[in-house]
Specification:
Blueprint (H helix, E strand, L loop, with lengths): L1 H23 L6 H24 L2 H6 L13 H18 L3 H26 L6 E2 L10 E2 L2 H19 L10 H18 L19 H30 L10
Antiparallel strand pairs: 1-2
């Protein structure tokens, strides 16, 4: 129960930060936004479960009722399902989807940080044992991976907010791609110290490999490619004196 409480608090805090950023950017966060954002959260939660189920298709094919449990999830599934949902929400709000995503990602990082406190309180997502020579007999210390995730997500939020200046944003989508890069890097590194993780089953192409590792590496590569492409595109338009079109559906 305590885990759920902190996840709800994370959603509330993240939504409040997003609403503040909307007002600060001169955008109207009306009823359409909040209803759409609730749907976006639901889609993201479904994505977290989908990615976990994907790690062991054979088991869940034989025990299909367990698919609808939310006891075990992988947060990166929210990114997998969330971005197409952001495109749909941007269409409803008549905003560019990159701009909308840029307004959302700092709040997403804040929500994840608070959610990790729930993991700490609940006792899940713990780290591997730390082997120290001077520990008392029978004492076991583990890497504080829940706290490490929380601090890393807070740092990600702080970096994104610090970068959110007109002169430091070369193009719409910059904050979103930086979030994807920062989050996936910290997730990959910290997960190396975690004692519990989901791995792809024997019937999957990455059998025995952690789901989070594969998804993190794939996200890092895609983010780097898109960053390079968009940066080149922005510099090209700046060099030719052209203005990049700010079409609402761009």
């Amino acid at each position: 129960m305590i885990n759920v409480v902190f996840h709800i608090l994370g959603m509330i805090a993240g939504t409040a930060l997003i609403a503040w950023r909307f007002r600060r950017a001169g955008e109207r966060a009306g009823l359409t936004f909040f209803l759409g954002f609730v749907v976006l959260i639901g889609i993201g939660v479904a994505g977290t479960r989908f990615l976990y189920v994907l790690s062991d298709v054979t088991h869940y094919a034989a025990n299909w009722r367990e698919i609808f449990s939310l006891d075990e999830t992988i947060i990166q599934g929210a990114l997998l399902f969330g971005f197409p949902a952001v495109i749909g929400l941007a269409y409803l709000l008549r905003m560019g989807y990159w701009r909308l995503a840029d307004l959302i990602v700092p709040g997403l990082a804040l929500g994840q940080a608070i959610g990790r406190i729930g993991c700490l309180a609940y006792g899940c997502c713990y780290g591997l044992p730390i082997h120290l020579p001077h520990l008392e007999p029978g004492a076991t210390w583990v890497y504080p991976t829940q706290t490490m995730h929380a601090v890393a997500n807070l740092a990600t939020m702080a970096i994104l907010l610090a970068l959110d200046r007109p002169r430091t944003l070369p193009f719409d989508g910059f904050l979103t791609l930086m979030y994807a890069l920062l989050f996936s890097t910290q997730r990959y590194l910290i997960d190396l110290l975690r004692a519990t993780w989901a791995v792809f089953g024997a019937d999957m192409p990455f059998a025995g490999v952690r789901v989070s590792q594969v998804f993190s590496i794939a996200t890092i590569l895609v983010a780097l490619i898109l960053l390079a492409w968009e940066w080149h595109r922005a510099r090209h338009h700046a060099g030719t004196g052209e203005q990049i079109a700010r079409d609402p559906q761009a």
